[in-house]
Write a structure and sequence with these properties.
4-stranded antiparallel sheet, Chloramphenicol Acetyltransferase, Dihydrolipoamide Transferase, 11 helices, 6-stranded mixed sheet, alpha+beta, OB fold (Dihydrolipoamide Acetyltransferase, E2P)
Length: about 400
């Protein structure tokens, strides 16, 4: 018998939520087959089976578990499985109905009860899925008059649609009326796991700091020239690698930007660790490049490529996302010129980079073709004043325009 435990995915990981079981008790599984999905405050991870056998989950979905806590047993054969079953109760693995229950908010359920009390229709005693209740309220249907075809006579979505069709046929001269007014959810996404962390962090960021954003535009000819020179030497690096190096050098010049605040204490960090905002599995993640101020652009590019590969493979560890001191967010790929990046707590500043675009510029009182890039710095005005923030952004701009400053 093998114990299936919550894996430790990094030095900073202490617990995880068991988000979903992919198997049920008694299922025969093979080595490498995904057993469950766990979510930490930073990443989502699929736990594979360490061998062949019969699985027996003992921890229900939605539970918060400590690292190395046993959540299931893998029995070698059916006899061993039966023995495990006697000693350990099965987990209440949630199905589609439970998933739907979690997706409907307490506010919606409260509104259903209030609606029932008002109409005198005791819908709280009628078995119906949350989605069916919501649809019935929206279309002013009485659940008491709708026969349920779900398990145990439960009213489900199909029953509401059938009731709407019957109502349509009873109103001659209004073909398609039910379809015309119907509003059905295409998808219900519970705010939990990584999305819950993003949800909370963005709320905390905007409500617990005094954010201000400065914008400037830089000549990008030097940036393009540096990238071409590196490519000609065999190093095809990304703009993100160059911008990360530029930001790291600027942070060394202006160390008070490399800071965070906790209560009434401001911490200026000794190390520079730059997070790179990117998308992974439909969610925002910010894996961190360590010490880019003392690395070459080639080394930084290699680090970024490795983090991108991990993000695409859904294999980022909590350590990959921990202890950033500053963030770079580049939306140039989406043809965005300027934007207002949001600080990632507990950091105090984030640099936004827009697209590199050819446009007309004025040089020596003449309109000439040029190449420009938009730069935006959002900073926490509680601990960083406007003038130091502006000087930091100017250092970034100067280095973008003259990358030789990187070796000055």
């Amino acid at each position: 018998m093998i114990e299936i435990a919550i894996p430790k995915l990094g030095l900073t990981m202490e617990k995880a939520e068991l988000a979903k079981w992919k198997v049920t008790s008694g299922d025969q599984v093979r080595e490498g087959e995904i057993l469950c999905i766990i979510e930490t405050d930073k990443v989502t991870f699929e736990v594979p089976s360490p061998g062949n056998g019969f699985i027996h989950p003992i921890v229900p979905e939605g539970s918060t578990c400590k690292v190395e806590e046993t959540v299931a047993y893998l029995a070698a054969d059916r006899a061993e499985y039966e023995a495990v079953l006697k000693g350990h109760p099965a987990a209440a693995v949630q199905g589609d109905d439970r998933e739907e229950e979690r997706a409907v908010s307490d506010v919606s359920r409260g509104a259903a009860a209030a609606s029932a009390a008002f109409t005198g229709d005791r819908t709280d005693r009628i078995k119906a899925s949350p989605l069916a209740r919501a649809m019935a309220r929206e279309h002013h249907l009485s659940l008491a008059s709708i026969p349920g075809t779900g398990p145990g006579g439960r009213i489900v979505k199909a029953d509401i649609l059938n009731a709407l069709e019957r109502a349509e046929t009873e109103r001659p001269g209004e073909p398609g009326a039910a379809e015309a007014i119907l509003k059905e959810p295409a998808e219900i996404i519970p705010v939990r796991g990584v999305r819950k962390v993003i949800f909370d962090n963005m709320y905390q960021s905007l409500n617990c700091s005094a954010q201000s954003t400065l914008h400037t535009e830089a000549d990008a000819e030097g940036l393009l020239s540096l990238r071409k020179t590196l490519a000609d030497s065999g190093a095809d690096v990304s703009f993100n690698a160059i911008l990360t190096k530029i930001a790291a050098v600027a942070l060394r010049i202006h160390p008070r930007i490399n800071a965070s605040v906790d209560g009434d204490v401001i911490t200026i960090w000794k190390q520079v660790h730059v997070g790179i905002a990117m998308e992974a599995s439909g969610a925002l993640v910010v894996p961190v490049v360590r010490n880019p101020d003392v690395k070459s652009i080639r080394q930084i590019d290699s680090d970024i490529k490795a983090l991108i590969a991990k993000a695409r493979g859904n294999s980022l560890s909590p350590d990959d996302l921990a202890n950033g001191t500053f963030t770079l967010s580049n939306l140039g790929f989406a043809e965005v010129d300027f934007f207002t990046p949001i600080i990632r707590p507990p950091e105090s500043a984030v640099l936004g980079a827009g697209r590199i675009v050819r446009k007309s510029v004025v040089k020596d009182d003449r309109v000439v073709p040029g190449v420009r890039i938009g730069l935006s710095l959002t900073f926490d005005h509680r601990i960083i004043d406007g003038a130091p923030a502006a000087r930091f952004l100017k250092s970034v701009k100067d280095t973008v325009e003259n990358p030789l400053l990187l070796i000055a």
